[in-house]
Specification:
By secondary structure, this protein is of the alpha+beta class. It contains seven helices and eight strands, in the order H-E-H-H-H-H-E-E-E-H-E-H-E-E-E.
Length: 173
């Protein structure tokens, strides 16, 4: 069932009015809301409603911490619809997608796929030949449907599985 949802999401078109752009300090409250809601509501298969795991995972997702990431030069992106942050993504220049979270109100509408595509394009622009990420159990099927491949054995972070994945960024041709 999860695979069908992942495939449907991979091929669905993003909602009308979606804007994908670099995040600014004016986005930190919406980003914090999206990150914490996504983790709390969509990643239950990972945190298993364990309050300690949930608290650890969301501890650095408050507006002040996110502002610190932006001030430090982190490459963060938002997908917005109107004034609302629908998804948050991040990357590192060495080819790592550091985060990708969709607000539950925007899940399964193509928003995550659109933001992932934009992050991959940005890494191509930075001339990264390959992209890397650590997927949650929740997101693993989504990334697989987007052409990502497993890249080693899963690891754990505070009891939450992380699945290393990679994707070639060479142009299709």
């Amino acid at each position: 069932m999860n695979n069908k949802r992942g495939i449907a999401q991979a091929f669905s078109k993003p909602s009308e009015g979606l804007d994908i752009r670099p995040a600014t300090v004016f986005d930190v409250f919406g980003m914090s809301r999206t990150l914490t809601r996504s983790i709390r509501d969509l990643c239950r298969a990972d945190h298993l409603d364990d309050s300690e795991r949930l608290a650890l995972w969301t501890a650095n997702k408050d507006p002040a911490a996110i502002r610190g990431w932006i001030d430090a030069g982190a490459a963060l992106w938002v997908a917005t619809q109107g004034d609302e942050v629908a998804a948050v993504g991040g990357l590192r220049s060495e080819g790592e997608i550091s985060l990708l979270y969709v607000d539950p109100d925007h899940a399964a509408q193509g928003v995550g796929s659109a933001l992932l595509c934009r992050l991959e394009d940005e890494l191509r622009r930075l001339e990264c030949p390959e992209a890397y990420l650590l997927a949650t159990r929740t997101a693993h099927g989504f990334y697989s449907a987007q052409g990502w491949l497993d890249d080693g054995d899963p690891t754990e972070w505070h009891g939450i599985p992380q699945f290393p994945m990679r994707k070639s960024l060479h142009p299709l041709g």
